Sequence to fold (302 residues):
Amino acid sequence: MGDLYQQVMDSIHRGEPFLIDGATGTEVERRGVPKLDNVWNGGGILSHPEIVQEIHEDYIRCGARMVISNTFATHRSALEGGGVADQFDAFNHQAVTLARAARDRLNAHHVLVAGGMSHWSFSKPEPSIARLHADATDQARIMADAGADLLVLEMMAEIEPMMALLDGALRTQLPVWVGLSCELDQHSEVILIGGERLVDAIAALEDRDVPLLNIMHTDVTIVSRCLDVLDRCWQGEVGVYAHSGTVKDGDWIFNDIISHEDYARYVSEWLARDVRLIGGCCGIGPDHITHLACGEHFNPSP
Fold:
């Protein structure tokens, strides 16, 4: 475990809020990078690396203390769906390298670089749990070798795939945070977007080496309901990076994104509930993070 990571966790344990980046995938899209079939906006890692690095740099300039690699859709099965599985190593190594290069270019040695991992699939059939575990183990190793400070599981939608990714990621000996994506069912109970109850996902993570649980890629309006569940069931640290906007025919629609001011008001409510980590997911861009960094809750970056 690196000294910087431990310093960050020590500050979080002391109750200090920690600001991370906003969306990378939708920001890549907003800046005009073409999509790769079934790889969403991950293709820019190799096709437009200068834009991906620029996005990381922009977030660091905004005040983010951690940037996450643009690897939401670069697990092996997603790349197979895009016909580029032979570049699995290149996509994942390059993504972490670009985030580290952004940090180095700005001499921002106070910034953590996280390797993002997901099981979300844009094509069928989905891999078996055994295959998912093996691929996650490989992806985590590549990111660790590229210099990630920690690994962050994102948009965990189902419990069994989540546990397969977690087991694979933990094999690197890097710290691993878990991000759950939630919605409300017809009875207004909080569930993962795959349909299982949030309370059951939390129970599955008990006694696992997960120091921080994020509610992420979840609409801002239901985050408080998710926090109600975590208040009852989760003993570790909590983070939130919500999304705003909608998808139409595979494209993110940016004309209904929450304003910087309104997002900041939600953030103030979350921080008042002992949420320690704050950032943004799809639709939440550099301007939102800048607005948060300049607010009352966050100290200026070193």
